[in-house]
Amino acid sequence: MSTLQEQFNRDGYVLLRNQLDKDIINAIYTDARKIFATQIKRVTGKTVDIDDRDTFENAMFEFFEKDFDGFVSTGKTVQHSFPLHRLGVDPVIENLLKEVGLSAPIIGARAAMQFNSRFLSKGGSKHWKLDAHQDWRTGQGSLDSAVIWFPMVDAGADIGALQVIPGSHKIGLQASTTSGYQGGITVELKDEDFVQTEFKVGDILIFSAFLIHQSGNNITNNIRWSVQLRYNNLDEPTFIERGYPMAYIYKPETELVTPNFPTVEQLKEVFS
Ligand SMILES: O=C(O)CCC(=O)C(=O)O
Hints:
Blueprint: H1 3-11, E1 13-16, H2 22-44, H3 53-66, H4 68-78, H5 82-88, H6 91-99, E2 105-116, H7 136-139, E3 146-151, E4 163-164, E5 195-196, E6 204-208, E7 213-214, E8 224-233, H8 237-241, H9 264-270
Antiparallel strand pairs: 1-6, 2-8, 3-6, 3-8, 4-5, 4-7
Helix pairs in contact: 2-3, 2-4, 2-5, 3-4
InterPro entries: Phytyl_CoA_dOase-like
Protein name: Phytanoyl-CoA dioxygenase
Cofactor: Fe(2+)
């Protein structure tokens, strides 16, 4: 067993320094900001420099305030970017998963990105911070399923990097309010049991889907941009036995998002 796997099995996570190519992370981060910038222009009329962090993020907040639905759908669109998905199947990631014991890794859920800030929330902390939870409840895949989490900006306590309870992956699936993203563990947890993680761009956290973790508290005025990748192990016996369950449900809208759209003229124009 590799030292990495020993650590992973013991603590439920490993935090690896300088693991990912910064250019790859920057490509994901840049694409996300460019996608937002197009919609910021539509909604606010402003052309923003995506590299001017404070100005760009203030424009994000303005977009959020002016067109909530547009912001939410843009936030979803960002999750479908090519660079994000390319990373999800990169050999570097595949090998790391194998090193911590997932002998035949497979994607457990669509790659995800979060942009956490209290200025991007309508429902108080509920909508920008996740309470203590175990990801296995949402994925319900192999018992050794693992999550990769990393920020695309340097992230410590102030900007709310993830907090984890070492060893909590071995105490079983805890009772929780719901199985959705907003669910939280209902049994009493001690604040002092949580360890605050800290990252430089390039560092990544791999953790067991049973590890109890929660969002940190972003007290800064900046957005904490992060990525989450989720995997199962096709070789894990109970996963095979349970018929490879897939608890993530992606489904189409039942109604047209834009009523009476498109016109025949618009289609003719596109295909002219
Ligand atoms: O990034 C966060 O603050 C929370 C992410 C998380 O808990 C998860 O993806 O399971």
